[in-house]
Structure formats: C-alpha cells, structure tokens
Input
Amino acid sequence: MGSRHYGIEPETVDKVASEIAKTSSTGAEIVIVLGGGNIFRGLAASKHGLDRTAADYIGMLATVMNSLALGSSLKKIGLENRVQSAIDMPKVCESYIRNRAIRHLEKGRVVIVGAGSGNPYFSTDTAAAMRACELNCDVVLKATKVDGVYNKDPEKFPDAVRIEQLAHLDILNNGYGVMDNTAVTLCMDNKLPILVLELLKDDNIKRAVLGEKIGTIVK
Output
C-alpha cells in the first residue's frame, strides 16, 4: 500500500522485491506468503454484515493480486519466481502443490504462495505457519512496519521498549499480537522460530538471514 490509503503502490512493491533479491543472493531459499489487507480485510468486512465465508474468500483473492504484483516486480529485476495459489486458478498462476514448490526452491526460484490456506476462518499468518512447516523452512519471518515486539505500542508510547527474545507461550499468554494464536501454536508445536522484523528497512531481511540480531526472535 505504501503511502496510499488503499491498493498497490508499485514503488513499494519494487522496494520489497529489491529486499527479497538481496536476501536471495545469500543462497537462502525463500517462500513468501502475502496478506491482502491493503485491498480487502475479510474479518473487518464480516463485522459490517458481509457473510464471513464470502468475505474471507474475497480476502484470499486480494492476496493473489498482491502475489502477482510482487512476482512481476521480482521478474523485472531478474529474479526467477513462481506464484502459486491455494485456490485453483490455472489461467492466473500455478496451483499450490508442495512437491512442486520444493522443486522450485531447489532450482533457486522464490516461491510466492497466495490465497492463504485456501480455507475461510484461517488468517494469512496461519497460512504462513502451515507453508513453513510443510516446506521444511527454518524460520518464519513476520515482516511488518515495526522493528520487533514491544512491551507496549511504540506508535502511542515513546517509552516503549523492544523485546529481543520471547517464547511462543509468551505471545499466547500476554497477547502481544505478533501473529494470531493458531499460527503461533502451530509454530510452537513444530519447534519453528518466528522472527519479527521491519520489512522496508534497507537490508533488514538479508541481515536477519545472515544471522545478525534483528527484531524480536520467538523460539
């Protein structure tokens, strides 16, 4: 969304693509799960009377739009990628198939998975945790607009303090709002760490992949 109030800002997409390309240059295998809140928020719409299942499907389609935009931006800078969707739409992109995704990763391609989990009532956070488990990922990077987890909202409280390390149970018990409980529980059960970091800060994702202390680690 960038500086806009709605939709896709191409300059921001290009910035994200650039950060992914830098990270890919390390040899890391990268799977990306995108949200769609810049276009449509299913849960918010359902609170205003739209059928929840329909609202969630609209939200999933929004994530595919973002996925296609990012895939196009990556291709423009020469980074091979494949957009897959949890909802079959063969004229638009590949269907998500685990083994096919793994083959793409082995060939050095970035895999972008849209449409969440393909099921209503599950967030894209949960979809990211699911894909990370299925594809044997080492860590879930929760890329957001703040540089980690704070003891209180840093946008409202200037004295907020960033927390360097948490346990999964800390997130569940203290309501930090990093990811929804289903996603955190799935990561905890599968001993999968979560790293919360700022998305658009130069080289942040690459530095995290190289082992530098970035953001907040949940493990």
